[in-house]
Amino acid sequence: MARILIVHATRSGATADVATILSDGLRGRGHDVDVRDAAESPSPGGYDLAVVGSGIHTGAWYSEALAWLDRHGASGVPVALFNVCLNAAKPEKRDETLGYNAVAAGKAMPVAQESFAGRYVPERVGFFKRLLLRTMQQPAQDHVDPQRIRAWADELDAALVAR
Ligand SMILES: Cc1cc2nc3c(=O)[nH]c(=O)nc-3n(C[C@H](O)[C@H](O)[C@H](O)COP(=O)(O)O)c2cc1C
Asked: Buried b / exposed e across 69-91, counting CB within 10 Å, b at 16+?
């Protein structure tokens, strides 16, 4: 059994939901999991693994998730990274969406990385960002896929068991 900290940054809720599904999967594998908001800057002290996730706006992680990595990414606790974005719903964009992790990965030497499909809920996005999404012809959509997220929980569990 490992102690795992999941740190997330979200604007419209999808990354928080992914973090919850991931935590359920890891708990199902017998791990002790805490889920915290990156803005609280939770310490990774005492954990065996920190899993850090952020939503993506215009190709970039949210600032509070990057700030968490700046502060805690080199603490010695292994770090796994994931992002949540719309392009991850398109298999042909796999390289691009994993590429969204590059800046974050530069701060933490991650042991694992993923990119999960998120959702677009116009009511949860501010006026100007909504305008941007409209010019990109993006309708409301929801691609959050619990099965894929649980599969990654299983991969993380296997890596922890193999340590
Ligand atoms: C202003 C804005 C910019 C976005 N830019 C991208 C992008 O560059 N690539 C992408 O795949 N998704 C993009 N998205 C979609 C978000 O990544 C998606 O809605 C995700 O679920 C957001 O996570 P959150 O709900 O945790 O904030 C964008 C959404 C908004 C509102």
From this structure: beebbeeebbbbbbbbbbbbbee
